[in-house]
């Protein structure tokens, strides 16, 4: 939404007065419509219940907590994959936290005394799986190509060597301005980054932290082990199927204090125009993360099976 506004305004800036005013007016109206559609606007009306939101995605929206498990989730937070799923977990397992915003630091959940023991792990840093916690694992995955694009544009997320080189700080949160290399999206830095974070999801599913080292191709054994752990996990969600993932979680582990906030988009991309540019550069270079693609496909299979089983479609 912001991107469309920004682009239209830039294009409109060369126009004469009235035409420009009209354009800006249209942009504002469109903006207001999409604001209320996303539930942010004041005139959005009564928020929908999770059952109402999930109704188109399941044959039986009234059925929740079908596993009858009191899950104490262990979150495997793969970078750039469903950060805000912590809101869903918070609402389901600790309604006492009273989450009312689609973006929230997990600290805020954990600071609520009642929530402390509800989670085996719910931290923000991207630590690897503790292998003994596999059966409690909750993880979201997304297409590896999109993950790389998103991380590249987010200050070389998880690539320490590039962060040091281009921002002079080892962590993205201390890297204050997006370096020009990011915004110019040149092929060398894009490929260097893609290689740096290659196999990241596979490595994390084998217990490595995202910031441990510059990543190298995982071994076939590690790929198989990662895929197997996705079969054993408590929950595997798919970022591209956000709402269905939230509905599946509800169907499997209960609704708790879930509201429409669990379905909201919290962090719209800051550089949407650059995304397509980076995507094209990676495609032109034939970049393909074999390990993470295999693991992503294992996740898709698991998700499909669970959806069929718990949502009925
Ligand atoms: C997900 O659900 C929310 C809440 O109903 C809705 O605003 C949003 O448009 C849905 N997203 C998609 C991609 O359908
Ligand atoms: C799901 O069911 C289990 C077993 O009855 C229960 O302990 C747990 O609290 C339920 N989960 C939610 C979110 O209601
Ligand atoms: C499909 O899902 C059901 C329910 O979770 C599970 O019992 C079954 O083992 C799964 N099958 C496969 C092949 O993953």
Itemize the secondary structure elements and their pairings.
Elements: H1 2-12, H2 17-37, H3 50-54, E1 74-76, H4 85-93, H5 106-111, E2 137-141, H6 144-153, H7 160-167, H8 180-184, H9 187-196, H10 200-204, H11 220-232, E3 235-238, H12 242-253, H13 272-284, H14 290-311
Parallel strand pairs: 1-2, 2-3
Helix pairs in contact: 1-2, 6-13, 11-14, 12-14
The structure holds 2-acetamido-2-deoxy-beta-D-glucopyranose (3 copies).
One 2-acetamido-2-deoxy-beta-D-glucopyranose binds at residues 231, 305-306, 309.
Please give a structural write-up.
This protein has 14 helices and 3 strands. The protein is globular. The chain has one domain (46-310). The chain is mainly α and 313 residues long. Bound molecules: 2-acetamido-2-deoxy-beta-D-glucopyranose (NAG) (3 copies). Keywords: Membrane, Transmembrane, Transmembrane helix. The chain crosses the membrane at residues 21-44.
The secondary-structure class comes to mainly alpha
Q: Please tell me the total number of domains.
A: 1
H/E order of the elements? Answer: HHHEHHEHHHHHHEHHH
- The biggest beta sheet, please? 3 strands, parallel
- Could you give the distance between the termini? 31 Å
Low-confidence stretches: 1-43
The average pLDDT score comes to 82
- Which shape, going by the Cα principal axes? globular
| List of distinct ligands in this structure | 2-acetamido-2-deoxy-beta-D-glucopyranose
Tally of individual helices: 14
